């Protein structure tokens, strides 16, 4: 990611807290305070409510920290708008501290204890209980209130993050408030993007409350939303005088005669994304099958793979899609890596190392040239990184990238791309229709095609994941994997027009 746009940064809970403190310190120099920041935060939620929902009765659930302070601001301004507002406070006002206590004293109505019966007959329920400040499971009366709120016929708004969601991981701590809309501040947090937390957030709105981009740079974000602005300048669009040999020669390794479709999906995707030439390395029994299906794709004999690896023109290799979980695949992966080729290892090329992943990692780390991208879904990730499965997705992907020495694309509805140096990008543009047989093969082929054109490996991974999602969005319902390569040119055209 060569052109990081801080507007697309995703902040951890600690980074957001640091940004708050830097901003408050700057406000104090101008005669203001943290209360001004809290006022703006609460007002931003009120603006979203009044612009998108009409009602008369509101219940504001306030917790014992700053999230609860935001709730008191919301209650005060909704009342000024003519709403009938009830406030439920977890704890007592006298035990609130700092800006939260100040905002509670400005509320001129009653505060009631948490009680599930308060949920009845509300048009709007605002969750300002915990936000990001939760580290243990919700239980007892709070759990009962949230459970009843989730089943109520009311519009539900969460302040910052739905209560019950761990801010850095998206983990649900027992139970979580299920919002129709979440209003967060300054930047999204990992929990807005990672499942299962994302499922509870509804429509996420990022409100500007006056924290500057300069402050965000100071907290040094290292997680980003996967957006074209971050890698579009390194996209290898052909120049007017370029020819096919400038754009690399990609090779996809095929499975046997009855497992050829996956490699063809990858091959066509690599061509569509711009690879100058494309070959399929085919076993003897599949040669005729490939020959009858392919035109622009050349066919090479699999038994000549070792000699093909000596050809410097064949610079980018993809292996794994239906390659077979067998010794031949294992040896081919190691040969490709040892030859210093750009390598995309997908599916079977990962699973075949389940019993000895360290051999794979050593081969990747021993290379002096060539880029490597691993593309595991959750099952494949568990096979080669079983000891990382208890970690959250971002930490697991980071550790996997550092250990393996490769770019790791930890696939899913919340795909995370991680680099060995700690960079992370989270994709949020994949529709549910992308969960279809063969779509991962298309993704692997796209990465291979971009690597063939000498694109930076992290950028190539991020670009491929984003384009993959955009193709699915373009097509809509009824998508099958064969539809995806046809839409790549349309998405590439959009990217080019962004520059």
Low-confidence stretches: none
CATH topological fold name of the largest domain: UDP-N-acetylmuramoyl-L-alanine:D-glutamate ligase
Structural class: alpha/beta
| CATH class category name of the largest domain | Alpha Beta
Oligomer: single chain
Overall strand count: 18
Reported for the largest beta sheet, the result is: 11 strands, mixed
**Measured distance between first and last alpha carbons:** 16 Å
Approximately what portion of the residues adopt beta-strand conformation? 15-25%
Q: What's the helix count?
A: 18
Helical coverage, percent range: 25-40%
CATH superfamily of the largest domain: Ribokinase
Radius of gyration: 26 Å
State the CATH architecture of the largest domain.
3-Layer(aba) Sandwich
Number of domains: 2
Q: Give the mean pLDDT.
A: 95
| Overall morphology | elongated
- Strands side by side in the biggest sheet: 1-9-18-17-16-15-14-13-10-11-12
């Amino acid at each position: 990611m060569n052109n990081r746009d801080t507007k697309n940064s995703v902040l951890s809970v600690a980074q957001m807290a640091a940004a708050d403190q830097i901003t408050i310190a700057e406000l104090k120099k101008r005669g203001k305070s943290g209360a001004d920041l809290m006022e703006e935060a609460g007002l931003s939620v009120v603006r979203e409510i009044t612009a998108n929902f009409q009602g008369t009765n509101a219940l504001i659930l306030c917790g014992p920290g700053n999230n609860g302070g935001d709730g008191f601001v919301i209650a005060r301004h909704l009342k000024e708008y003519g709403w009938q507002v009830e406030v439920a406070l977890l704890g007592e006002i006298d035990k609130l501290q700092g800006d939260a206590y100040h905002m509670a004293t400005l509320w001129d109505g009653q505060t009631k204890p948490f009680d599930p019966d308060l949920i009845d007959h509300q048009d709007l329920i605002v969750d300002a209980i915990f936000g990001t400040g939760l580290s243990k499971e919700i239980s007892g009366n709070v759990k009962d209130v949230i459970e009843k709120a989730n089943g109520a016929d009311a519009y539900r708004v969460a302040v910052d993050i739905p209560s019950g969601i761990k801010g850095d991981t998206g983990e649900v701590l027992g139970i979580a408030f299920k919002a129709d809309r979440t209003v967060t501040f300054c930047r999204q947090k990992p929990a807005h993007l990672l499942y299962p937390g994302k499922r509870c957030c509804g429509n996420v709105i990022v409100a500007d409350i006056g924290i500057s981009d300069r402050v965000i740079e100071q907290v040094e974000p290292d997680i980003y939303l996967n957006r074209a602005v971050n890698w579009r300048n390194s996209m290898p669009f052909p120049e007017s005088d370029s020819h096919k040999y400038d754009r690399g020669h990609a090779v996809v390794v095929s499975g046997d005669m009855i497992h050829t479709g996956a490699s063809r999906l990858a091959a066509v995707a690599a061509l569509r994304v711009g690879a100058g030439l494309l070959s399929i390395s085919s076993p003897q029994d599949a040669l005729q099958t490939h020959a009858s299906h392919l035109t622009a794709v050349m066919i090479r004999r699999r038994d000549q793979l070792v000699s093909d690896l000596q050809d410097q023109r064949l610079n980018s290799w993809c292996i794994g899609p239906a390659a077979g979980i067998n010794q031949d695949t294992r040896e081919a992966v190691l040969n490709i890596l040892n030859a210093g080729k750009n390598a995309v290892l997908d599916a079977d090329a990962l699973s075949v190392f389940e019993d000895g992943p360290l051999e794979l990692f050593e081969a990747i780390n021993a290379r002096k040239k060539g880029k490597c991208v691993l593309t595991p879904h959750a099952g494949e990730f568990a096979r080669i990184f079983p000891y990382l499965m208890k970690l959250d997705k971002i930490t697991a992907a980071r550790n996997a990238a550092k250990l393996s020495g490769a770019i790791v694309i930890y696939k899913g509805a919340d795909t995370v791309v991680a680099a060995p140096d700690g960079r992370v990008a989270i994709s949020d543009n994949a529709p549910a229709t992308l969960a279809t047989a063969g779509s991962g093969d298309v993704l692997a082929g796209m990465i291979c095609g971009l690597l063939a054109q000498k694109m930076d490996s992290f950028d190539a991974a991020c670009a491929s994941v984003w384009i993959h999602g955009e193709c699915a969005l373009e097509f809509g319902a009824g998508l099958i994997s064969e539809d995806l390569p046809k839409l790549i040119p349309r998405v590439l055209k959009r990217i080019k027009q962004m520059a």
